[in-house]
Input
Amino acid sequence: MSLLIMNLASPFLNYLKRLVTGIEFKKFKDAVRRNPNDHLLRVRFAKFCLNHYFSQRGNSKQHGIEAVNQFENINHSEVMDLEVYYLMGKYYQGQDNAKAISIYRKGITRYNEYSQKNLDFRHEYVELAFSIALNLLHLENNEADPELEKFFKVIRRTYLKRFFDEKMGFGPEILGSSHGDVRPIAN
Output
């Protein structure tokens, strides 16, 4: 019975979802038209378009084109949002790897610049920056450019130091024991 209800409701829910997405797209587009210099709004719009593009598995070309247009305006501003660099690089990866490399590099460069100015920024965006760095390494065939090396030095200094400074109880099961007995570690 519940399967029958789901089969009947599914087309309606899909239609509703497309309708809501279309309305949100139009609202973003109108807002950007009214506020062309609001780069934070453009970032939100680009991320909305890219997230929708990826959720539709690339079937929404209109959202992809709009995201590219918004990114071109954002790319030259001082707005710092690493997610838009990650998503835009992911958009180009496989289609235009040179463009993806350029976008990922710019994201890492921005992270390095902002993390020198603000330590909180460094901690808040480290996972996203690390994802960008790994994608960039993959595209560059493991040849790290200077900005990427700088990024990994920052990460090493910040996070490995903190990891080793914490009280870590490495017991025999981790370090290796001659007796092979495993005991719980109490800190």
